[in-house]
Amino acid sequence: MTIVEAKKITKIYKHGKVEVRAIDDINFKIDRGDFAVIAGPSGSGKTTILNIIGAMDSVTQGKIIINQQDISVLNKDERADFRRDKIGFIFQSYNLIPVLTVYENIEFALDLCKKHSPLEKKDKIHRLLRELGIFQLKDRRPPELSGGQQQRVAIARALIKDPILVLADEPTANLDTQTGKEVLDLMVKINLEKKTTFIFSSHDIMIIEKARRVIKLRDGKIEGEEYDSKDGF
Ligand SMILES: Nc1ncnc2c1ncn2[C@@H]1O[C@H](COP(=O)(O)OP(=O)(O)OP(=O)(O)O)[C@@H](O)[C@H]1O
């Protein structure tokens, strides 16, 4: 079943009179439960596509349908609600709140979109922290954590609201190879066990090799697409 469908989307950024065609009339589909990568050289439009899927940015032309909802017709406030309630984000630089503990970082993300009783909330957060192997870190603050540990916390923060999909922009770029592999393996495990849909932007060969779907971009166009239908990795 399709979870993301891009129909003839174009994104033009304007700087005064100069126009940059970041995405140029492209179509693609991503299935529910996919582990998909948008790949391509620097400037090819990867982040632009991720920002459009995540409703952080709008398209100039075309339609983008997420979970059967046409998000290209949403205004700025509606896009913000959609993104807060439905999409999990993982960033290259983790973007945790440094003054909050691990538990509080995740609680903050949950409080923004769903109301739970304090007990329900604690149960839900503790369960997820155990699943991700970071329960013992719950009272530490981000500056007291390694990069790999911070990225695991960021994964927990993305997952706590049960998003319909998780977008990860170069999530291994700031990690050494071994830590990057461990963080990637964790996302593969979550994808297999929880059937969470992951969409990455990356040129990391390790991620591209693990992906079931690879959409290759060049100069805002799709240069090629690979899809491995087998279940598992
Ligand atoms: N906010 C913006 N304003 C103007 N131009 C932009 C903006 N964002 C991106 N662009 C331009 O759009 C094109 C695609 O950029 P994008 O960031 O999507 O590429 P990318 O593949 O993610 O690159 P990288 O791997 O370097 O992050 C580039 O030419 C870029 O300069």
From TrEMBL:
<dbReference type="Pfam" id="PF00005">
    <property type="entry name" value="ABC_tran"/>
</dbReference>
<protein>
    <submittedName>
        <fullName>ATP-binding cassette domain-containing protein</fullName>
    </submittedName>
</protein>
<dbReference type="InterPro" id="IPR003593">
    <property type="entry name" value="AAA+_ATPase"/>
</dbReference>
<dbReference type="InterPro" id="IPR003439">
    <property type="entry name" value="ABC_transporter-like_ATP-bd"/>
</dbReference>
<dbReference type="InterPro" id="IPR017911">
    <property type="entry name" value="MacB-like_ATP-bd"/>
</dbReference>
<dbReference type="GO" id="GO:0005524">
    <property type="term" value="F:ATP binding"/>
</dbReference>
<feature type="domain" description="ABC transporter">
    <location>
        <begin position="4"/>
        <end position="233"/>
    </location>
</feature>
<keyword id="KW-0813">Transport</keyword>
<keyword id="KW-0067">ATP-binding</keyword>
<dbReference type="InterPro" id="IPR017871">
    <property type="entry name" value="ABC_transporter-like_CS"/>
</dbReference>
<keyword id="KW-0547">Nucleotide-binding</keyword>
<dbReference type="InterPro" id="IPR027417">
    <property type="entry name" value="P-loop_NTPase"/>
</dbReference>
<dbReference type="InterPro" id="IPR015854">
    <property type="entry name" value="ABC_transpr_LolD-like"/>
</dbReference>
